Amino acid sequence: MKKILIVLLTMMLCLAFAQDEETSAPPTSNTDDTGVSGTAIIGGISIDGKNYQQIGFRFDVPIGKFGFGLDAQLLIDEEGNIRSEDWDEVEDYMDKIYYVRWAKKGDPFYIRLGGLDYTYLGYNIVVDGYSNMIEYPAYKRLGMELSFEGEKFGGEVLVNNYKELFTEKPGMLFGARAFYKVWGDLAIGATYATDLNQLNGLRDNDDDDYPNEIDMYPEDDRYVTDWDYYSINMNADLADSLVYYNIIDSLKKSDLPSYADSSKSVAIWGFDIGYPIFKNDFMNIDVYGQFAQIQDYGWGYSAPAFRVKAGPFMFSAEYRHTDGEFLFGFFNPTYEMERATYNGSTFITKSQTLKDTPALDGFFVGLHFNAWDWFTLKADYQDLKGEYPITKDDYEVKSLRGEFAINENLIPKISLAKAYYMQNNVVDLSEWRTPSTIMGYSIGYNINEGTSIIFDYRYTFEDMNGDLDVEDDGETIKTISISTAIKF
Question: Which domains does the chain have, with CATH numbers?
Fold first, then answer.
């Protein structure tokens, strides 16, 4: 019933917003009239620790305010076989649609289906830069972001992945915000976001209802443990003998919990108010405040807060407070990696980790700088402090995000140069590798006009054995792509 209601609500919002566009002021010209463009990719890539040769094409097709992108690729393993799991289901062909959009962000009505790079709702206390592309191309999600704004009323909608509605454990991350200008430019807003099943963050490659973290045979739905393998291919007596001589573990499939019918949801609602105290052609200064409550957990607010936009600069600062069991920007860029994790004995959702978070006070600052045609710099930092109620031990929550990119053609022969680092809600930033860390860099070198070699490295980390660190073998997930890109 929940998934049906979400779909109906989304459709109703889309229809209502489309009707609102007809009565809105004409949008400023913001369409891409450069024509069809595309990139051909030839090179190597590593996914889930396995190396493939990649042959792919990506097209961007603008048609007035409408546009779509196609992303088709063949991954060929070391034996010359095409990666079959990319082509064996109907949804795999949907994945070839990178995005479909109408208009662009900032227009009176905008909608995009497919890959979402960074999505925000309001002033970001609930949804702060969510991305459904964080594990691309290993995992592709079909999401949606939508926004509209009329003279007095506006709103935003987020869906992380429509494909989750049709799994054995239906779920979906859905978020919406509406705002109304009550007096002049003084606007109040309300946000609601919910993940209907955080356990959908678990990977189950063979769809046997036993997530990869506890499945010793994640690509074969016939086996989960070594005992299963030998008892099915040989017999149970032989499997028991191997256990007796300590050759294999005694664990059986029946000893492990199945998550086929499990569901753990989380919901957050919030309110915000904002007013532009100064604006002209060069500078805008906004003051705002926001509050949010995580259902069955705690609440937090940020106020006073302000944001300054001046030419190529944007700077924001907030005082932040929580009453415990609360995280700012719960649905953040790394959320898909944090939805559900394995702690060595059971699976735990991101919302369950809030039980260990005490009341906190601190600040947030952010700086975005676009240095004309030279480079772009983005940096956000959060520092919150508190103490455990009983032990009085100090507790800290810190987040750091940074990205530095050199614009194309600034350096001869360099078509792309970007480095980034992101770590959310950790106690100590000196522990630079955690399950919430994403870092990487990309470099492109022009061979000749329209053709370049691109080196792309991305690192994420996963606690595979539940020992609360990511220092062991196999816990660094490295995605490497070396390709030739041909633009046309």
Answer: 2-28+112-201+263-487 (2.40.160), 36-102 (no CATH), 203-258 (no CATH)
